[in-house]
Design goal:
This protein is an all-alpha fold. The protein is about 60% helix and about 0% strand. It is globular and about 45 Å long.
Length: about 190
Amino acid sequence: MSKEPLPSFEKITQILEDADLYTNASETHGVLSGLVCGGVKLDDQSWRPHFNDVVNEGLGLPRNAQKLVESIYGQVVNQFTDDGMGFNLLLPNDDVPLDERAEAMAQWAQGFLVGFGMVQQALNQSSDEIQELIRDIRDISQVSLDFEQEDEESEIAFAEIVEYLRVGAMLCFNAFSRKPPAPVSKTLH
């Protein structure tokens, strides 16, 4: 899977709009992250039918959009499998008004829940911590944050929610997708 950098948020948005897909950059990243964290097989094919069902009524994507989405998927997988420390939500840059960034964050959370729910059928068997985390992500996806002022306090609150989502996604990946290390044989030869 490719490790080349993604185009800008604006370019990703434009490619998805040009393809007439029912998604945007943040939501696309959220769906792909949810699929990966929910336990989809981490190969080049398993995620595609799920993603296409969500954004294009089960049909394949136009070539330009397909190439972009493959690149985003590859980056998501690489970020999670590289100890997850490099994982970040795909959101507009800090120079975009805070209300727009907050809306994109809620769209990312919505996408994450959709992708996660498509592949993870055993949530009720997971830890209380994971179940609470998914409820929190649901609540974040439904919130309409309207910042009256773009001050330091609002920026800090926004950054804390984004960090909570980022760490939450890593916890879900570790719970449902990370392969346990192969047991070491205790037999001496």
